[in-house]
Specification:
This protein is mostly helical. The chain has one domain. The chain has ten helices and no strands. The longest helix has 30 residues.
């Protein structure tokens, strides 16, 4: 009897220590709750990096069709947007707010994004001596497509999954690290990726303010992307505009599909009790 009581006391102390450790970790912005979603996030990241590497290092820009299809529709729209969106609504059965697509804090996010975008424009694009012409249009549309992909995939998808698994601070750092390292697919060197890690921390912190991708896109991050493309002397034929518009269309289609699937699932998952009581409520209302 005494040994059993001592065992219970030891178990209680052990549980108390675990709760204390959990509280300390939580107060420090740390956690340890990796699950299936964490593994899927890492796996999707590997697929995105592989897709970019295939597009730019295997096919290269010399094989235009293969490069574009792998880069735009497959990697950006398919792996970067459709996979997180459909996994969220079909497998996790969660709203798209879990990937930063929400009406909550939409107006403050747009205003803050506009202010940050204007400040970025004054310090980047406004300093360049170039003419806004139709030759710049494909670069603008590409910056919008890549910006939407990065906002949803790296901030709404990876960062929020990492925060759930490891806490806020590790989630922000790990999301920024993934953002910087994925540029290896573009063929960037380590010095450039170190700069992008710092930039990723900035983007992650800004996103953390509202947890809405509208704080980053369409005003803030695309301006920086366009500036980088122009300063590096990147040029594209005007016809590339149609390809990136197609990519944006596929992204929007994936998001709309996710919204519709979520709404349909919510309707079909109504409890039978609620469905049965609905006619009764209607009858009571009519009798009143």
């Amino acid at each position: 009897m005494d040994s059993s009581r001592q065992l219970d006391i030891a178990n209680a102390r052990h549980t108390s220590k675990l709760f204390s450790l959990h509280r300390i970790l939580r107060e420090q912005g740390l956690a340890w709750r990796p699950n299936r979603d964490t593994l899927v996030a890492f796996a999707s990241y590997g697929l995105v990096v592989a897709g970019l590497y295939t597009a730019f290092q295997v096919f290269t820009t010399e094989r235009v069709a293969a490069n574009f299809v792998t880069f735009g529709p497959v990697t950006l729209a398919g792996l970067g947007i459709a996979l997180p969106v459909l996994y969220t609504v079909l497998v996790r059965r969660r709203p798209l707010a879990d990937v930063g697509l929400t009406a909550r804090h939409l107006l403050p996010s747009l205003i803050l994004g506009l202010l940050l975008g204007w400040d970025t424009y004054r310090n980047t694009l406004a300093t360049l001596d170039f003419v806004w012409s139709k030759e710049v249009l494909p670069l603008i549309v590409m910056a919008l497509a890549v910006g939407l992909f990065e906002a949803i995939f790296f901030r709404g998808w990876l960062q929020l999954r990492f925060e759930e698994a490891f806490g806020v601070v590790p989630g922000v750092v790990l999301g920024a690290l993934c953002y910087s390292l994925y540029h290896v697919g573009y063929g960037m060197d380590w010095n450039e990726m170190l700069f992008l890690f710092g930039l990723g921390l900035v983007f992650a912190a800004v996103f953390r303010l509202t947890r809405n991708v509208a704080v980053l896109w369409p005003f803030y991050t695309p301006i920086g992307g366009l500036y980088t493309n122009l300063t590096e002397g990147l040029t594209m034929p005007f016809e590339a505009t149609y390809g990136f518009l197609l990519t944006l269309g596929l992204m929007v289609a994936a998001i709309v599909t996710g919204i519709l699937v979520r709404r349909k699932r919510m309707r079909t998952e109504q409890s039978p009790a609620e469905v049965r009581t609905r006619p009764r409520r209607v009858m009571q209302a009519s009798s009143d």
